[in-house]
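cron nightly-structures :: item 1 of 1
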Amino acid sequence: MGTKKLKPMSLSEKAGTILRQYGGVLLGLLVLVLVVHDIFGTHGYLAMSRTQKEIKKVQADLEQLNRENLKLEEEVQDLKTDPRVIEKIARDELGLARPGDIIYIIPKSQQLPQDATVNP
């Protein structure tokens, strides 16, 4: 029986052998890492979903502010042009009256408390 000498493997042969043995596992791990990154990464599915929800919330807030802005613009226009609104403010807040009007001032100690739920 003869002894057969094994010739040493080159580096490329070793790499080829390792790739043949573990190639499927390495490819599977790489795919798994990419899938996890696409779901949980900084630009992944969950981050994009969160960003879209935030965009919808900001758009809803913007629409609400635009409606409020339009209402305030109408109020400003009424304050500039509508004599009834101007008169109401003059009477209620400034205590002014037309000639011939009689103003009754009730002391605060005798006034009933204002309740927002009670309508006169």
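cron nightly-structures :: done
Helices lie at 11-40, 45-81, 83-92.
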